[in-house]
Amino acid sequence: MSIRMKLLGLILLLVVAFGIAMGAYLAVHAPIGEIQSEQQSLTNLRSALLQEMAAANELSTEQFQTQLPVFDKAVTSADYYFVRIGGLKILPTLSRSIRGALSAIERLKHQLDENTLSFKDSLATVDQDAATLYGSRGSAVYGSSGAFDLFHLAIDAALSSDHAGAATISDLDDFATKLGAITQGLQTAVVVIDGQNATIAKEIARVEARSAGVALG
Questions:
Q1: Can you say how many angstroms the Cα of residue 147 is from the centroid of all Cα atoms in its chain?
Q2: pTM of the predicted model, to two decimals?
Q3: CB 102: neighbour CB atoms within 10 A?
Q4: How far apart are the C-alpha atoms of 107 and 131, rounded to whole Å?
Q5: What residues in the chain have per-residue pLDDT under 70?
Q6: Which of 30, 79, 106, 153 is the most exposed place for a label (fewest CB within 10 A)?
Q7: DSSP code at position 139
Q8: pLDDT tens by residue, 48-67
């Protein structure tokens, strides 16, 4: 066999060996894009919860009827990402620690849902209080559009001498209590997500490092 043929054979063997190694490497890393996408769902959930918290607190300062749909949209967004977390396919298969972290995040939803439901009940009550208080007085503040903010509602309720004013003050106190509860719940959820996300990121790095070693070793 000529030297040229030997060289061609050696080159062919090297190409085949390199191809096998790259195939193994790519097989191990094939889901990396999906892993990153699923990780992004955790970041998106965190952002959605912060947006919900901001929207809830702005109900006490912004025009009430304008801010209500903003809050509802924020709640819907957070719910969507909780569903996404529950449907993750790749991350739960990587390790037991990741499965535990994801379960801890999913468990947050029950308490958050209770806080949100209670808060929405309070919003409906305050909205009805405004309709009663302003409707009975024909106030230009409320007007035909039903526009009002809680600051002026509280002032008008305090100045009112009828039962509607006293009921409104009581319901605004309840609103403040429930706003505190939903805010605290969302803050706690974000802290939990940060902690569990750190665990997940560490586990992903460990799995990737081990997989790279196997593929290139």
A1: 30
A2: 0.78
A3: 20
A4: 38
A5: 1-30, 136-146, 210-217
A6: 30
A7: -
A8: 999 999 999 999 999 998 99
